[in-house]
Structures are given as C-alpha cells and as structure tokens.
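User: Sequence in, structure out. Go.
Assistant: Echoing your sequence, followed by the structure tokens.
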Amino acid sequence: MNRITHWAIAASALLLTACASTPPPMPAQARVDDSANMITPMTQKRETLVATGYAVISIQNHRNAAQQRLLAIRASKLDAYRALTEQVYGQQLDASTTVADMTVMSDTFRARVEGVIYGAVLVSITPVGDDTYETTMSLDRHVVNDLRALYIASLSNKR
C-alpha cells in the first residue's frame, strides 16, 4: 500500500508539473517595461492626429446667407483646431459640487484648453445636412513632438 501511495504521489506531481507551460520568448522589440507603456502618451502611438469641428450656419451673426456660411466654415475650423489642441496638450478641468442636506444643490464644471498648433493640414470642409459644416484637420506626430518640446521649454523658461 505504501508503495502504491508513493507511485500515485509521484505520478500526480509529474502530471501537475506537466500542465505548467512557459510562454514563448518575446521578440526584442516587444520587451518593454509595463511602466513605460503607462507613461507613453496615446498620441505617440498614432502617426497622425485627426480632429473634427462643427458649426451651425443659421446661428452665425450675419444677415447675408453667404456670409453666414463663411462664418460657419471659419467656426468649424476653429472647433477642429480646438480639438487638435485638446489632443496635444490636454484639457484643464475645474469642477465644483455643492451638497446640502445630502442633496446636490449645484454641480458645475469648466473646461479650458491652451496651446499653440502649427502644421495642421486641412483635410476636408463638408456640409452636413442643411445647416451645419464639418471641418476635419490632421496633424503629423512629429509636429506634435515638436509642439510638446516647445511647450515644455516655455514652461521651464517661466520658472
């Protein structure tokens, strides 16, 4: 009986260790520290940033319909620039919540973006429906890296 028990334990140990597998070795390029992935901006993982802006024609402050269309195109382009700026520099958010008697009395927030964009390419200006313009712009990743370097340098010069 004792001999059978030893063989059973040995066989079980052999079977259990055979179940463990070793992952295949990773190529040299794929060996990256996980902490490095966490601090790499998402924009560096894409070759081109793309942003879209919108503007409504009828709310533009002009009586002439042609001028309203031109103003809407300009506003949609500025909205696209803002979206690019948000992707490059991020947004500053300020939020405030007031609670009284365990009830939210007010909940406000303010978003702000600040930065300089150059080198953006106008991809398209397209009418959407009867009353809206859509503008799409793109920005090369290498330009994004230049913009970030200039921004960081300007921050260090302010100190």
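User: And one key feature?
Assistant: The chain has four helices and five strands.
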